[in-house]
Write a structure and sequence with these properties.
Chain lengths: ~270, ~350
């Protein structure tokens, strides 16, 4: 098979990025358990869960946390197949990365391998701990990000007193990422449709530089235009936002119950010898 | 190079958050005055650009492709402060929306790729470019070298961050986080970056600068673009680089095997020969109600059943405390903003 050019590879990653963001918006619109909760509550509780996921030391508590998080994802109208696909991608990579640790971590040998190597029990438990930890961290992050629309998430950040300028930049950056991605996609498609054979690396690099420069100039020009448009609409350096609504009873319940479950898991884990 | 969640301990993650927050604060203060009302759209577009640059698959010698980070280019063209914010926001968007890098690890990723890499790269660029003319070839070479060194410093930092995890956080010989020590993690990060990714970054940085210079020379010479630092800015850049170096020095201690920063009073006595009086006074002033997270009155030879009871008890205590705190919070907020208030008129 001929090696694929950088144009193909970049186009592929662009398409993947766009698809994933559309998919996330789609899930966030479905009626599900987590979608119904206030984004502020989700940010707080799932951040706590993330912290607990990073702190647990024993596998039973890790498994319980993972089971709870997977349950939440399923209750939020994600199909089991999707959950499995999302949750096994990164951990699979982690598994590949951590496989040598089976042998490299010193400890009592469990299985003897050729060349005087041995899989150690400490190696096995290190790999299992890492995998469970990565999977439940990922599940907590997905539960927050997939079930919350971007605008709601930003409003939650603002309500949690994250500086305005930062939230504003984040909001606008997210929007313009797609403008620039589209531009890049057009550039790459145009290039691909005009080429008959694979070009040499040097030529590819030269083309890449001009694409980079076009993007850069375009972003500079766009930022000027966006600023003028904002000024025309009355922007004076301090954007105004609508006051966030008060938390409903279900949100308080979720905040209380969710934090309590995380705290309980953490304490049980710490109390274990 | 983005660190996912689960590979580093919460303590490491928080240390990096602590490291990155002052830089964010300074950068935003600095940019607010430099760009006035234009700050938000300009920063947003630059970080969208940084995001897109990270998607470019750059063909590098040897027949493969690698993706660059582009934060050194941003630092050279836009100035180090804008580079810090633009790269950080791009990384945050990646972490939140595309699962690239962990959420708890945002502090670490932003510090390494968004602060250390552009600052080191910028320092190298200034050093090598010297007082050469803006159109000289030396500046292009300086930019390429800056990109190369910048990304390798970042790779080294990631390697060290991952490598110290088993030193600090192991239990009974079992690693709790990334299982590889420095002797594996550092070469694993550095070898691909010294060869492939470093080349990609050098290409993007040098070529990007060459193109910006040809197409928008005003950006590199104009005083409005905050590209060339003034005397005061230059001094602060030197201070920043010094601060980064100071922050990095503990890593050298760690490499030699001592658990840096976690000494008890006795260990300090051994290490430096005396116990700081403040430490001696404060050590142990707080007695945890559940020492070592077990119930204090539990006998040492407690049966399995009693131990289970102890866990459950401590869990119940924790649940009660959390619930009480949240209900108190609710009562506090209720009295001020009743939820049945009609919505404010638009």
């Amino acid at each position: 098979m001929a090696r694929r050019s950088f144009v193909e590879k970049t186009l592929e990653s662009l398409a993947g990025t766009l698809e994933r963001s559309l998919y996330a918006e789609d899930i966030a619109r479905r009626p599900g358990l987590l979608q119904r909760l206030d984004p502020r509550v989700k940010v707080v509780v799932l951040a706590f869960a993330l912290l607990v996921a990073a702190s647990l030391r024993t596998w039973p508590t890790q498994l319980v946390l993972l089971a709870i998080l997977v349950g939440l994802l399923l209750a939020s109208r994600l199909s089991p197949a999707t959950v499995a696909r999302l949750l096994f991608g990164l951990p699979l990579f982690s598994l590949l990365v951590s496989v040598p640790a089976l042998v490299l971590v010193p400890g009592p040998p469990l299985v003897y391998l050729p060349f005087g190597l041995a899989i150690t029990s400490h190696g096995v438990s290190s790999v299992v701990t890492l995998l469970l930890r990565v999977t439940s961290s990922l599940a907590a992050a997905l539960a927050l990000v997939l079930t919350t629309r971007w605008t709601d998430l930003l409003a939650a950040f603002r309500a949690l007193r994250i500086p305005l300028l930062f939230v504003l930049v984040l909001a606008m950056a997210y929007r313009y990422v797609f403008v620039l991605l589209e531009l890049l996609q057009d550039l790459l498609l145009a290039r691909r449709s005009r080429s008959l054979a694979a070009s040499r690396d040097g030529e590819q690099r030269r083309w890449l530089v001009s694409a980079l420069g076009v993007l850069f100039q375009r972003s500079l020009r766009t930022s000027e235009q966006v600023y003028l448009a904002m000024t025309a609409r009355g922007f004076r350096g301090e954007p105004r936002s609508l006051r966030p609504r008060a938390l409903a009873d279900a949100d308080w319940l979720a905040l209380s119950f969710g934090s309590a479950v995380c705290a309980a898991l953490w304490l049980i884990d710490l109390a274990r010898p | 190079m983005h660190i996912p969640d689960g590979y580093i301990s919460p303590a490491t993650a928080f240390a990096y958050w602590g490291g990155v927050l002052p830089f964010w604060y300074l950068a935003i203060q600095r940019l607010r005055s430099a760009l006035a009302g234009r700050t938000a759209p300009a920063l947003a577009l630059f970080s969208a650009f940084a995001f897109v640059v990270m998607m470019f698959n750059v063909p590098v010698p040897g027949g493969t492709t690698a993706h660059a980070v582009g934060s050194v280019l941003a630092a050279i063209v836009l100035g180090p402060w804008a580079a810090i914010v633009a790269t950080s926001v791009a990384l945050i968007v990646q972490a939140l929306f595309f699962g690239d890098g962990g959420i708890l690890a945002i502090g670490a990723n932003c510090f390494i790729l968004g602060v250390a890499m552009p600052l080191v790269g910028y320092g190298v660029y200034r050093l090598v470019a010297g007082r050469s003319a803006p159109e000289s070839r030396r500046r292009i070479f300086a930019a390429g070298l800056a990109g190369y060194i910048g990304i390798n410093v970042a790779a080294l930092l990631v390697g060290v961050t991952l490598g110290i995890q088993p030193v600090f956080w192991s239990e009974n010989g079992r690693a709790l986080y990334n299982p590889y020590g420095l002797e594996v993690a550092v070469p694993a990060m550095l070898i691909p970056h010294l060869t492939i990714a470093g080349a990609a970054e050098a290409i993007v940085t040098a070529a990007g600068l060459a193109l910006v210079r040809r197409l928008s020379p005003d950006l590199l010479g104009a005083p409005t673009a905050a590209a060339l630092p003034t005397g005061r800015q230059r001094r602060s850049v030197i201070w920043l680089i010094a601060a980064v170096l100071v922050l990095l020095t503990p890593l050298g201690l760690v490499a030699s095997g001592s658990a840096w920063g976690e000494w008890s009073a006795e260990e300090l006595q051994q290490l430096v020969g005396y116990v700081p009086s403040g430490l001696a006074r404060w050590e142990g002033w707080w007695r945890a109600p559940l020492p070592d997270y077990s119930v204090p009155w539990l006998p040492a030879e407690a049966s399995f059943f009693e131990q289970v009871l102890a866990y459950v008890l401590s869990a119940v205590v924790g649940v009660g405390l959390v619930s009480a705190a949240i209900f108190a919070l609710r009562l506090l907020l209720r009295s001020r903003t009743p939820s049945n208030r009609p919505p404010a008129p638009a």
